[in-house]
Structures are given as structure tokens and as C-alpha cells.
Design brief:
208 residues, 7-stranded mixed sheet, binds S-adenosylmethionine, globular, alpha/beta
Length: 208
């Protein structure tokens, strides 16, 4: 990318640097609150392929369409929509932002939706667990890190499936914690994203 292309790229995606350059959870919540109404339109070009890829990957691995799926950091529900199109029926959405969840609710694909911070270790009670946990666009700069990974892991059933997206530069930062959990990487897909100089990975792990 030359300088002009790079400038155009950033001008067309002012939201990208804004959300990644976030210093606290409170700040992130406010940014998503004000972004919620235009999120789906703004990310259409760069991101809409990913929820579809997630749903397709899951459908190759799990034929039971009634399995319990947690969409952690569900945002406006793009992943839920793609999962519903594949026939999945038992979807729970959690997100920091009430405003993002309000858009997700309108899509009528989640059985349960609730506001919560994935960094909070008491976000779920101990009796709750899921066949599948998905985090799409959540492990990213200014967003979730290792504590979220470690908080979610106990709520995945044995032999459950965890799908996460992560950009290659951020992946390097949490590769060690990813390797330390008791699960196996069963699928790794790589997609060029944004300026195409970086890859976005869709990683699928199986617990146990
Ligand atoms: C880039 S958006 C992705 C939304 C959706 N998964 C998608 O694929 O379109 C990231 C979402 O993660 C949520 N998020 C980030 N950190 C979070 C946290 N600590 N707890 C709960 N949600 C969080 C944000 O509120 C936002 O809705």
C-alpha cells in the first residue's frame, strides 16, 4: 500500500483505529454504544464474510443443531444470524454493550441475551456450560485478552468446541496462553483482512 492508499484506507475506516485504541472497558463500552446503529453497515465490506465462515466451519464439525452455543461478545448478532441460517437454534448472546445487544435482539435469533463483562469471573454461574463458545472480533487490541480466555474456558463442556477469530499480530501476544489450555487446535483458517497485509485467523479448538 502506498501512502495515498493507506490514508484512504484509514479515512474509510475511522472506526477501526478508534476501537482498537481503547484504554479501558468503560471507554470500549461507550464507543460501542455510539457505534451500534451503524456497526452492521460499517463492517459489511471487511467483516461480513467472517460470521458466515464461522457458521460453515461449525456446521462441518457439529451436526446437532440444538447444541448450546454461547456467542461471547455477540455485538449486533452477525454471528447469531449466520448460525441461525445454518439451522442452529440454541443461541446465547452476551456483550458489554446494551446498545449492540438491542440490535442483536431485533434479529430474533438468540434465545437468551444479556449484558455482561467477559472479564468478570462471576459472569456465569457454575451450573452453566456450553457445547460451543464463539468469540468473533473479541480477542483484539483494546478488547479482550488472556483473562477473558481463562474466564470462558471453564464454561465449555468437555469435548466442546471453541471458535475464535484473531489477527496475526495479536495472536502472537496470546499464543502462549492459547497453547497452555487443555484443548486441541482442530482447525485453522486464515483470511486476508483490512489492508490485506495482515491475516485474520479463525481458530477452532476442541476441549480435552
Ligand atoms: C468487533 S465487535 C464483534 C461483534 C460480533 N462478534 C461480530 O462478529 O460482529 C466486538 C464486540 O465485543 C464486545 N466486547 C469487547 N470486550 C468485551 C468484554 N470484556 N465483555 C463483553 N463484551 C465485550 C464489544 O462490546 C463488541 O460488541
Amino acid at each position: 500500500m502506498d501512502n495515498k492508499q493507506s490514508k484512504d484506507f484509514l479515512e474509510q475506516r475511522a472506526w477501526l483505529s478508534s476501537i482498537c485504541d481503547t484504554q479501558s472497558t468503560e471507554e470500549l463500552e461507550k464507543k460501542y454504544a455510539s457505534w451500534a446503529n451503524s456497526y452492521d453497515t460499517d463492517v459489511q465490506k471487511d467483516w461480513s464474510f467472517m460470521p458466515v465462515a464461522i457458521a460453515k466451519t461449525l456446521s462441518k464439525l457439529l451436526l446437532d443443531k440444538h447444541c448450546s452455543i454461547l456467542d461471547a461478545g455477540a455485538g449486533t448478532g452477525l454471528v447469531g444470524e449466520a448460525l441461525a441460517k445454518e439451522g442452529y437454534t440454541n443461541l446465547t448472546a452476551v456483550d458489554l454493550s446494551e446498545q449492540m445487544l438491542a440490535i442483536a435482539k431485533e434479529k430474533q435469533v438468540y434465545q437468551y441475551l444479556f449484558q455482561g463483562n467477559l472479564e468478570d469471573s462471576s459472569i456465569f454461574n457454575n451450573s452453566e456450560n456450553f457445547d460451543v463458545i464463539i468469540t468473533a472480533g473479541v480477542f483484539a487490541y483494546g478488547h479482550a485478552g488472556v483473562e477473558v480466555l481463562n474466564n470462558l474456558f471453564p464454561f465449555l463442556k468437555e469435548e466442546g468446541i471453541f471458535l475464535l477469530t484473531i489477527r496475526e499480530d495479536y495472536r502472537k501476544q496470546i499464543q502462549t496462553p492459547l497453547d497452555q489450555l487443555s484443548w486441541q487446535l482442530i482447525s485453522e483458517e486464515a483470511f486476508p483482512i483490512y489492508d490485506e497485509a495482515k491475516l485474520m485467523y479463525l481458530l477452532t479448538f476442541k476441549k480435552g
